[in-house]
Write a structure and sequence with these properties.
This protein is of the alpha+beta class. It contains six helices and eight strands; from the N terminus they run βααββααββαββαβ. The longest helix is centred in the last third of the chain and has 19 residues, at about 195-215.
Length: about 250
């Protein structure tokens, strides 16, 4: 697992009705390598299956100081200056952002290789699932102890756990990009091979969510988000054997 990027944003954009595919094309054409050149990473980008105007992506930084430096370089730089008008015109809302961290070094997101246009001509495959838990104040450690038991049951031939993240409770040092401050969250991520694997896995998602709800450690309903990887998403169905080392 990659533990170098210890600050991770889960960014869920609402796109203007009917314009999500257009936004995805702009995003994937111009932005992943631009962030990578600055030392950050676009882990993955997705279309939310049950929310037709949602485009969701994950961005990683080394730490908060690095986040500030990268955001200043990108959003005050030439790539964003050239394309921001077209891109911003497609976004209805970009404020649904969770600032997260791996719960421990063993649960960071894997940094998979970029999609290969030769060996993967159809683009990223599989399905990614995010299970979002809102945890009661000051109960994070207790929740993680209980959740570990449930997450251990998420296994099977068509499933890979990608990581478990929790709220990073620090001040937002780039206020031009708001982040949510409405509580503590834990997010479990997994990759599924295909629709059959998703059908087999769905009951387990519900069982774990119901069981954790009965602990009294949650401050709201659990949200399960089915994410279809966009064409160039690194996070996809691929066993995380090879990881990309960040260039020095």
């Amino acid at each position: 697992m990659n533990t170098e990027y210890n600050v991770i944003e889960l960014r869920r954009y609402t796109i203007q009705p009917g314009r999500r595919a257009t936004f995805g094309r702009y995003f994937e054409t111009y932005f992943p390598e631009a962030f990578q050149q600055l030392g950050a990473i676009a882990y993955g980008h997705f279309y939310e299956r049950e929310q037709p105007d949602r485009f969701t992506w994950l961005r990683g930084y080394q730490d908060m100081e690095h986040r500030l430096a990268v955001n200043r370089a990108f959003y005050y730089g030439p790539v964003w200056a050239e394309h921001k008008s077209a891109v911003n015109s497609l976004i209805a809302n970009s404020d649904d952002v969770l600032l997260l961290r791996p719960i421990d070094p063993g649960h960071g997101l894997p940094l998979l290789r970029a999609v290969d246009p030769v060996s993967e001509p159809e683009g990223a495959g599989g399905i990614v699932v995010a299970q979002i838990f809102k945890v009661c104040d000051d109960r994070l450690d207790s929740f993680l102890q209980r959740a570990e038991i449930g997450f251990a049951g998420y296994r099977g031939p068509g499933l890979i756990e990608l990581g478990v993240l929790a709220t990073l409770d620090v001040p937002n040092n780039f206020p031009q990009h708001p982040v949510r401050t409405d509580g503590t969250y834990v997010v479990w991520f997994g990759a599924l091979q295909d629709e059959d694997a998703l059908a087999c896995f769905r009951p387990a998602l519900d069982i774990v969510a119901d069981g954790l709800a009965r602990t009294g450690l949650l401050d709201g309903p659990t949200e399960t988000v089915i994410l279809d990887p966009s064409v160039r998403s690194r996070l996809r169905w691929q066993r995380p054997v090879t990881q990309l080392a960040r260039a020095a």
